[in-house]
Design goal:
By secondary structure, the chain is an alpha/beta fold. Helix content is 41%, strand content 21%. The chain starts with a helix and ends in a 13-residue tail after the last helix.
């Protein structure tokens, strides 16, 4: 009987440690968006995934990429990107790209609400936080406005593909 309790306890512990949220797979890519908490929905996750596939583009068919969407405790959103830490360290400009992705998401999807980007390992354990930056949003909006005035497409922020 004791082994049954131990097995149940281990099963519960394993489940609690791997609760990334509900998962949505993004059609036409190997992207997956986990969404967690009552303040975000499947529709929110699908919208984010489609944006990261079509507009950035971050999701593709080459490698599986996972992100997690949650409502931030202080308002706005926290979006976790599971990335390869070693590759990230070899590509320092990737941090700026992720900051621009956060700004673009704030403008295009979240009505200028703050979007914090958190870089994580494959189990969504944070190792780098890129907080919402109003100045990056302002610069991106200026770039978009200037491009619209010149009738040219604006340069889109690009993910690292990790």
């Amino acid at each position: 009987m004791r082994s049954v309790y131990l097995l149940l306890l281990l099963t519960f512990a394993f489940t609690a440690c791997t609760n990334y949220g509900k998962k949505v797979s993004i059609d036409g890519s190997k992207g997956e968006v986990y969404y967690k908490g009552d303040a975000v929905s499947k529709k929110d996750a699908e919208k984010l995934g489609k944006y990261l596939k079509n507009d950035v583009p971050y999701f593709d068919n080459e490698r599986r990429k996972s992100i997690q969407l949650m409502k931030a405790k202080d308002g706005g959103y926290d979006i976790r990107f599971a990335v390869d830490k070693k590759k990230l360290e070899q590509t320092p400009e990737a941090i700026e790209s992720f900051e621009q992705i956060g700004a673009a998401l704030s403008i295009d999807l979240y009505n200028n609400e703050p979007v914090n980007i958190l870089l994580t390992d494959t189990r969504f354990k944070d190792f780098k936080t890129i907080p919402f930056n109003k100045e990056t949003v302002r610069k991106l909006m200026e770039k978009l406005k200037s491009a619209a005035e010149q009738n040219e497409p604006a340069e889109e922020p690009v993910g690292t593909g990790n």
